[in-house]
Structures are given as C-alpha cells and as structure tokens.
Design a protein that fits this description.
Blueprint (H helix, E strand, L loop, with lengths): L4 H4 L19 H21 L9 E2 L12 E5 L5 E3 L2 E3 L4 H12 L6 E5 L5 H13 L5 E4 L1 E2 L4
Parallel strand pairs: 1-7, 2-5, 5-6
Antiparallel strand pairs: 2-3, 3-4
C-alpha cells in the first residue's frame, strides 16, 4: 500500500533522445559484391578464349604437365584448314612460319599441341604430322577431350 509517488514519477519526465542521422555510406556490401564479380570473371575468362572451334575426340589418356609459357597450338578443322594458334595458314607455309615462331621461343625442342576435329580428314592430319616430323620437331602432342564414359 505504501507506494511512493515521487519515485514513480521520476522516470516519466525524461525525454527520449533520438540518434542523429548517419550520413556515412556503408561500402562493405559493395566491396563484397565486387569481390564476387572479380572471382567470377577470373574463373570464366579462360573459358571464353577457345580458339578454333573443334569437336575433339575423347580418350582416357592422362594430361601432360605444362609450363608457364603459352604453348603453340596447331588446329585442323573439319574442312581441312590448318591453323597456328588462331591464325589460318596454308599447308605449304606451315614449316617456315612454325620455325620462325619456335626459333624465338625454344627451337625444335618446343612442344607443339596438335588439335584435330574428330571428323577431319585423316590425310590432312597425317600430312601436318609428317611435315612436322620431317622438319625436326620432336615434341608433338595430340590434344583430346577426357572420355565422359557411356
């Protein structure tokens, strides 16, 4: 029964103070989004540079160890056209151009990756391999896709 009126009215006269408006921009979510986009672009960029579109045969062979230098890639498409990296080249100009490229890089010991469409003419692929072998290139690797199984 004995309630003190003075103690109950002491808290009612206080005004509540509001926090002042914050004028700063929180950049943390923006930085998070930018880092995610950076990672996505770093992963997808190598996938966008395919070169000559080919339908490679599938094998169960193990992959080769590569060095840091970009390899020389030769391609034979379904129409029998021959490419060095992404540049189309005539079959009779193949060895002089390839020797000019390899002399600047590593000589005849430079590894050459040969990519051929699985429906390409076998005779054209054999001609390219024969010219490379006849010119003294010893490190020739045939590029295939990993076998997906049935």
């Amino acid at each position: 029964m004995g309630m003190n009126a003075a103690s109950s009215s002491g808290g009612g006269g206080r005004r509540s103070r509001r926090k002042p408006v914050m004028a700063e921009i929180n950049v943390t979510p923006m930085v998070d989004v930018m880092l995610v986009l950076l990672i996505i672009f770093m992963v997808s960029a190598p996938l966008l540079t395919v070169g000559v579109p080919l339908d490679l045969p599938q094998t169960q062979a193990k992959s080769l160890e590569t060095n840091d230098q970009k390899p020389i890639q030769m391609s034979v498409d379904i129409k029998g056209k021959v490419f060095i990296n992404d540049t189309e080249i005539a079959l009779n100009e193949l060895i002089p151009k390839l020797k000019a490229i390899t002399d600047a890089r590593g000589g005849l010991e430079e590894r050459i990756y040969l990519r051929a469409d699985k429906k390409a003419d076998y005779g054209t692929v054999a001609k390219v391999m024969g010219q490379l072998s006849g010119a003294g290139f010893k490190k020739l690797a045939l590029v295939t896709e990993a076998d997906q199984g049935s």
